[in-house]
Specification:
CATH topology of the largest domain in chain A: Aspartate Aminotransferase, domain 2
CATH architecture of the largest domain in chain A: 3-Layer(aba) Sandwich
Number of helices of chain A: 13
Strand content of chain A: 5-15%
GO molecular function (chains A, B): kynureninase activity; pyridoxal phosphate binding
Distance between the termini of chain A: 32 Å
CATH class of the largest domain in chain A: Alpha Beta
Order of helices and strands of chain A: HHEHHHEHEHEEHEHEEHHEEHEEEH
Radius of gyration of chain A: 22 Å
Organism (chains A, B): Idiomarina abyssalis
Largest interface: A-B, 94 and 94 residues
Cofactor (chains A, B): pyridoxal 5'-phosphate
Oligomer: homodimer
Number of strands of chain A: 13
Family (chains A, B): Belongs to the kynureninase family.
Pathway (chains A, B): Amino-acid degradation; L-kynurenine degradation; L-alanine and anthranilate from L-kynurenine: step 1/1; Cofactor biosynthesis; NAD(+) biosynthesis; quinolinate from L-kynurenine: step 2/3
């Protein structure tokens, strides 16, 4: 496969035009959209308006006049389109961690009203740590008689669901390996065994089709700063299936989740629907950025997006093979396309140095402890030529031993 | 008092220069900084840099290169200077509501480790509703045997502290009346009776001196979008006195509060100090705005700021008297200067219409249900001529009966 073949793929790419909607960084091949998405041009325009008009000129009146007060709902509904959710089940607010706390407490209450013996929250050892930490927080406060975290291998998750299981907490695409679980099958299995499912969509939303309603997922949370390009640390989202709205409650009962927040009543009365998942006043700067960023998905077929994502990863791995590097970098991603997320991860002894050396050459990938390198593919803005460049620079780094440079001491990175 | 006298006051105002650091709205007298502060010019510059360089060009590397990862601490320490807190006790994150949940659960645990019979959280009927809602959330979550909310009149708060009281949850300056409690005395009384105090500084921070360490306050929360000018819905802050750090824990144990978040360990281990109050990934746009906004306080004497704030309110009320309006608008603020916040509130039958009619004339004040009008004074950017203009327009609105215009149907507003 040579550069001409690659360029041919870009010519017929149905998303070539979408790339132009992004404020692409100069002189970079960016394969880290699974960590922090690139800003869209519409986002910049929107932020300028929020700064120069809405906040600085219109000030407090903007809560009504520019509809700040409904941003959590407006943004939530745009996300709903991307995760297979009918309206009024998805809302944008807080962080994934905080939203997990709401989902965990709400779901536990529902299950335990039926069967107080169900106390186990089942999850996987290599789930993203904050997911596990939030279960530990709930367990510490409710006590072991209400909540116990049980961790198993990802491959054995389903076989551990039993009559003690209250909830299964699973992330659809593993942040380290990029392995995608069969969420539909997991939910069916959990429900058959009387448990509910909370699904973390951090590495799925905006990268592939998700069918929360069809799969009968109970609760879900997700991130807007990866494939949804909402900006660094952008607010997260939470989904609660409509069938649970009547029976759910969660303790972060702030005034934005009140049925009539502007009555300023001293008694909390939860709003009827998904709005009861809101807590405090949302950041308008952060919310406006997500709101604008989501418009790039208008008219996008998630099936076609998924196909391009898989094609990008196929081409990347094929090029590594061509460079005889598929033995040097050991794939830790699944061979089956259907089991992959939108990233390829490799085990490599000098993964940190490799990552740093690539950055020096303008190729941004991601290191994950202890020695993995992740290449994220964002089909809305990554071209096939990006992939070709990345593989070529990777080849040169290794040929020149740049990854062994003593400068590359291990240090912290952020997901 | 005529306009010339007023203009004289502006000439000798020590904060006249600070006004120039704000992006003042055109053709407006803005007396609503107690709801949403005005943007500083430095904030706009900073946001432009975050948008055009840090996010769009430097992307993921900015977590380290632009120190995004430490924003909660950096901003927290800037706030600490304004609330009388020695370093390492204040951090910026989440909303007030979410931070209240952390403070409530942390403080309850500390008290109940000593004395499990102390289950009452004492607060005031007219506290800001979200404060009360969060106690109701905790009570529901932990059960009545751990947490019960007891509401009393603000004037009787201290006399209700007894051997059942775990916590006193008080807001220093009431959002409706603007009445300021004696926090130092409250804390002394609570401690004498074995209870801890959580203080809400939403209407204090940035408007007057606060002495959390000196007053021996246990926990505090506060808002950055009012007198701190951090932007609409900007992240809040939380303070925990150092003496409690060893014994405190809170259930929103997200990865940013971990001792070593980037180890990605499946076991939660809280960070040693105030950092354990962090939960999820912070919004960089929102945090950067607060960070920049706080620089306007560099070198500001909070005592002098307080003096100007009281002077602004004195002048305003004096002008209403001059216009014979102090019987029409009934003061609900305390006569004693020391008991006032940085706002004056009046009861008036047509408060909503009055507020709307004033907005039409470019004077922005604030309506609070059922029939109060609040005038907020922000001494860093309000001039004495602003006050004169507001009183003059108010006189004209009432003289012309503009407040009775049938257009002014009651509707929602946001604090």
């Amino acid at each position: 496969m040579n550069l001409t073949d690659i360029q041919e793929l870009d010519i017929i790419d149905p998303f070539a035009k979408h790339r132009e909607q992004f404020q692409l960084p100069e002189n970079k091949v960016y394969l880290d959209g699974n960590s922090l998405g690139i800003m869209t041009k519409a986002t910049e325009t929107r932020l300028q308006n929020v700064i120069q008009q809405q906040w600085s000129q219109d000030l407090i009146n903007s809560w009504n006049d520019h509809n700040w007060v409904n941003l959590p709902q407006t943004v939530g509904e745009k996300i709903a389109h991307l995760i297979g959710a009918e309206p009024e089940q998805t809302i944008c607010c807080d962080s994934i961690s905080v939203n997990l706390f709401k989902a965990l407490t709400a779901a536990l209450t529902i299950v335990q009203t039926q069967d107080s013996e169900r106390t186990v929250v089942l999850s996987t050892k290599d789930n993203f740590p904050t997911d596990l930490y939030m279960v530990q927080g709930v367990a510490q406060f409710l006590g072991q008689h209400r909540c116990q975290l049980k961790l198993v291998d990802e491959s054995e998750l389903e076989q551990h669901i039993n009559s003690k299981t209250a909830l299964v907490l699973a992330t659809e695409v593993n942040f380290r390996t990029g392995r995608r679980i069969n969420a539909k099958q997991l939910v069916a299995n959990a429900h058959e065994n009387g448990a509910l499912v909370i699904l973390d969509l951090a590495h799925s939303a905006g990268a592939m089709p998700v069918h929360l309603d069809d799969w009968q997922v109970d609760f879900a949370v997700g991130c807007t700063y990866k494939y949804l390009n909402g900006g660094p640390g952008a607010p997260a989202f939470i989904y609660a299936a409509k069938r649970h709205h009547k029976n759910m409650s969660q303790p972060l009962s702030g005034w934005f989740g009140h049925a009539r927040p502007f009555d300023f009543s001293p008694e909390y009365e939860p709003a009827a629907g998904i709005q009861q998942m809101l807590t405090g006043t949302p950041s308008v700067l952060a919310m406006s950025a997500v709101d604008a960023a989501l418009d790039v998905f208008k008219g996008v077929s998630l099936e076609k997006l998924r196909e391009k994502s898989l094609q990008l990863s196929d081409v990347f791995h094929q090029l590594l093979k061509t460079h005889d590097l598929d033995d040097v970098l050991q794939p830790i991603f699944p061979e089956q396309r259907s089991e992959r997320g939108s990233q390829l991860s490799y085990h490599y002894e000098h993964a940190y140095g490799l990552c740093q050396a690539l950055i020096q050459r303008g190729v941004v990938a991601d290191f994950r402890a202890p020695n993995y390198i992740r290449f994220g593919f964002t089909p809305l803005y990554n071209s096939f030529e990006d992939i070709w460049q990345a593989a070529e620079q990777l080849r040169q780094v290794l040929a020149e031993n740049e990854h062994l440079d003593p400068r590359w001491q291990q240090r912290n990175t952020v997901t």
